[in-house]
Amino acid sequence: MLLLSAGRAGCRLLAVRAALSSCRNGGSALRSAPRPAPLIAPRPALRPAPLLVPAGLALGCVGAALGAAARCQESRGRSVPAAVPAAPLPEPEFQWATFWALLRPQLLALSAAVVLALGAALLNVQIPVLLGQLVDVVARGARTHLEGYLHAARPPALRLLGLYSLQALLTFGYIALLSRVGEQVAASMRKALFVSLLRQDVAFFDAHRTGQLVARLTADVQEFKSSFKLIISQGLRSSTQAAGCVLSLYLLSPRLTALLLLVLPVLVSAGTALGSVLRALSRQAQEQVAKATGVADEVLGNVRTVRAFAMEEQQAGLYCAEAERSSGMSQRLGLGIAAFQGLSNLALNGIVLGTIFVGGSLMAGDQLSPGDLMSFLVASQTVQRSLANISILFGQVVRGLSAGARVFEFMTLEPQVPLRGGDTIPSHSLLGQVAFKHVSFSYPTRPGHPVLQDFSLTLPPGETVAIVGPSGGGKSTVAALLERFYEPTRGTITLDGRDIASLDPSWLRGRVIGFISQEPVLFGTTIMENIRFGKPGASDEEVFAAARLADADAFIRAFPDGYGTVVGERGAALSGGQRQRVALARALLKAPAVLVLDEATSALDAEAERAVQAALERAARGRTVLLIAHRLSTVRGANRIVVLAGGRVAEVGTHEELLRRGGLYAQLMRQQAAEQRGTE
Ligand SMILES: Nc1ncnc2c1ncn2[C@@H]1O[C@H](COP(=O)(O)OP(=O)(O)OP(=O)(O)O)[C@@H](O)[C@H]1O
């Protein structure tokens, strides 16, 4: 996997270079190639020298090696932190049908791009021959008078100019069209993938890290797009050009061509050997960069903790040591690339020299004209570029297909519980009676670990039922099952006697159940928009009313921007109690029949808890409330208290009844009272 991905940036690098040089076409053989800008940091770049056939192939063979080097550099600049390596997932199959469905709307543009690319490639085969003819005219012209020279040189020069212009036009056309196709396919992939991800079951998100999912949306789509464009453009162009130019070489001079082909195996073997050394070096350097980035990622992400423990210097030292090691490895890699560069330049220039030398002897025997030699050099350079591109493309095909397969895998994944579909209960007849009947449940990620076992509980309409119990007893799981985040392994959950599995999940979540968790997440927008998230399309008045009910209106209006106050990332610009009340307003806006409060006040200090508690009590009136709580002081007023331990109901009763019984509840009460005394 690493090996495969190692050449990625290098391939891009060479592809960019190839694209640049293809724009310049075969006539640029005697011009020096421009150096591409470094991807992230300055590094030795692979410079296409005026190469001959074997040189080109060797260059292609080590392309992947240099790709590895470039990838090492690239990983520093990637938005998906390389420091969080994705857990190895089984490689999915590439779904051709899905790809075809995405491509079909672009078929016309794609066909046009293919035709234009082929046209540009065929012109490239013509150019060396015409250049040779021009050189012959130029060589003769040096021995004649100016007028005669101009007369002879003008037609081939004009023909060449015409071909160059036509080629420029074709190149522009196919690159523009391919870009359009690539971008549209990529945009469709991203949109479809995002929509599909949002439809997935909550269990799916338990099994996949956000980083992995974001990587599929970004890096994988990008990789697929680049590969797709490269394969179409370079694949077509390079194979056409290579075949055409090899034929031209043979027609120009079979002997010279044969001679060059003799040197080929030596260069290929040397290039391959060097390439594997560079790949290994690059892999090590890449891993080290990932390690250093991992340290930075963790430290910066937890800067408050670092500050709180005054660990800045220690953490900086940790990062510097990793960065130092990374720098050392990159330098070794740089040395390797430099050695490769020097040796390959020596070999390649040696071959140019050899060709001119041997070609000169052929010219002396009148078997080759100066123009032919020129054509030979130009055509051979075109072949080397084409072969280099083709060899890179093999790796690119593999990478592109596996990136595409990863994207399609989640794009076509069907959730177990669809977002919509099913019955609804008319609001005028909705009572809000909830019942869990013999529910057993294990999380899909831990199938052998039962969290709830034969759990039964009825929440009469308008009553508050509290669930308490030791940590890990399954309290939050009860709430998650009611929201249909997961499906029970056994048993049923009903709303007004109807199995919730038959009800429309989006209606259930969007209209019936209001859910407040311990640390509700707000979006980094205004308070108004955050509350309106509970019911898109709600009027300002409705938002204000919900905020008043949640006891949030007063503090919101006290902000200079009132309801227009931006709450910062995840609501960081609000206090815990304020955040909780905004979240409560958001939940109340949809006027839910059932309110689920999952440790809604446990993250708050005593004063904030009192404020939120008061708001919650007001909001609870007339609704069925499932109150999950750690602090037993908050459940005293509940109509019924259920003590949940080890996934089973241990006790049920009112606060007084449970205290009298002297069981687990009474024991928990004593524990908490003792803890409280200890902290005072
Ligand atoms: N998404 C999940 N995937 C796998 N196991 C989970 C998941 N969420 C919770 N669990 C496990 O299920 C069990 C019950 O967890 P749950 O959060 O329901 O307990 P709880 O009673 O609410 O605990 P606490 O009072 O500490 O919040 C625990 O053993 C927990 O590790």
Automatic annotation (TrEMBL):
Residues forming coiled coils: none
Keyword terms, alphabetized: ATP-binding, Ion transport, Membrane, Mitochondrion, Mitochondrion inner membrane, Nucleotide-binding, Potassium, Potassium transport, Transit peptide, Transmembrane, Transmembrane helix, Transport
InterPro entries referenced in this protein's UniProt entry, alphabetically: AAA+_ATPase (IPR003593), ABC1_TM_dom (IPR011527), ABC1_TM_sf (IPR036640), ABC_transporter-like_ATP-bd (IPR003439), ABC_transporter-like_CS (IPR017871), P-loop_NTPase (IPR027417), Type_1_exporter (IPR039421)
Localization terms from the record: Mitochondrion inner membrane
GO cellular component: mitochondrial inner membrane
SUPFAM superfamilies, sorted: ABC transporter transmembrane region, P-loop containing nucleoside triphosphate hydrolases
PROSITE patterns, sorted: ABC_TM1F, ABC_TRANSPORTER_1, ABC_TRANSPORTER_2
Parts of the chain that traverse the membrane: 107-127, 161-181, 258-281, 333-358
SMART domains per UniProt: AAA
Any one GO MF annotation of this record: ATP hydrolysis activity
Membrane topology reported for the UniProt record: Multi-pass membrane protein
Predominant subcellular localization, coarse grouping: mitochondrion
Pfam name, any one: ABC_tran
Residue ranges of every copy of the ABC transmembrane type-1 domain listed in the record: 112-399
UniProt domain ABC transporter: residue ranges: 434-671
Family named by the database record: Belongs to the ABC transporter superfamily. ABCB family. Multidrug resistance exporter (TC 3.A.1.201) subfamily.
Protein name: Mitochondrial potassium channel ATP-binding subunit
Species assigned in the record: Phasianus colchicus (Common pheasant)
